[in-house]
């Protein structure tokens, strides 16, 4: 079966051609090459969208802490959780509508809604939190981008396309938070917010003028149906049917338990490195860039090799194993060299999502790509609220405030002045911050962090372990459009990519 996978790899395009080649099936229409769908279009869209959000990471923290003070963590958790739940409910509906009406109009809408909260950071009061929460109704562009990629790629190339999209997402976050913090320190928060807003507006202009439609549904659907309430309700109940499929359910559980750990880790990892591991600001920036570059390289090159040799299921298993290892040792280790070494495993773990996206895509027809991708993206959106809340609660239980002003000169870290976050913590020795309390129980909990620095990471490792068991229970899906009497077809290619080769030998 490995030889079969290598034969299949010969059918795949080089990465350069995959990114820039136009969709072949459009050659019969009257469009010129400039208007044909290409993967590069949606890669640019994803990069600009998340680069703009990365820039305002520190201004957002400053804004929330300024208006909510000691309730910063609670408000941030409520906002993320509420938006995540809304996205979880509405993402399958949105995905189904893209299957009916096309990708481009909804891609434009989702990017617009996603970026709407950015200018609200310049307004006083609860506008930012409110708009951020309600953006969850339509702010789910990633599933549409994946569906767009499925429309314009062959089965043999689809997993590589998802890896490139995921790598682009990682590249956008590699340097943008650090760059935004530096610009904010030098020019102020309003300048950074306006820059992010300008990038978002340029992204909308790019989609409207240059990004072509990739999907046309053959069934006649009247546009006026979109305005009818019963149509939306109908699409909601249609999306619920996907959960009855055993294959979709198990993949969804893998996504849930792995994303729960991933989002929780991301939410507090920056402060964990600054406070408990005692990295300087520049060291944290270098570490983030180091992991980001590795993740981009692994997804662009190693990912393709793994899919062709050990299948999608084997690749997910390897990535989950790497995620478990890094979470387990981040939960136990103080050594700075081990922290950097585990960055390799952290980068490998980023291959989970593109591999699962490919598995979902290959088991559905082109007319179902939007709704199928929206299911797992909705779950990831839900986890983006639950994960940070769980990790934050556990850290707070052990006396470590993940929303603390970790750059305040009263703390035991380098006094690099960021924004005026008014949450202060008392300085204590021996690599640990605890709340200003004489309560014996609180002190004993805080002492626990001197032995085990990252209790939530250990819980995250258990969560990934559960995801691993769901992956082992995953069986081969029903390949859409399978034909009985034919030579090697795309369905056989799909089976080759999805099947764990070790099971067939």
TrEMBL record:
InterPro entries: MFS, MFS_dom, MFS_trans_sf, Tet-R_TetA/multi-R_MdtG-like
Pfam name, any one: MFS_1
GO CC field: membrane
Domain named Major facilitator superfamily (MFS) profile: residues: 38-478
Biased composition (Polar residues): 488-499
Keywords in alphabetical order: Membrane, Transmembrane, Transmembrane helix, Transport
Region spans: Disordered: 480-505
Places the protein is found: Membrane
Bilayer-spanning residue ranges: 39-61, 73-94, 106-125, 131-149, 161-180, 192-211, 247-275, 287-307, 314-332, 338-362, 374-398, 457-474
MF-aspect GO terms: transmembrane transporter activity
Entries under Gene3D superfamilies matching the protein: MFS general substrate transporter like domains (1.20.1250.20)
Membrane topology: Multi-pass membrane protein
Official protein name in the record: MFS domain-containing protein
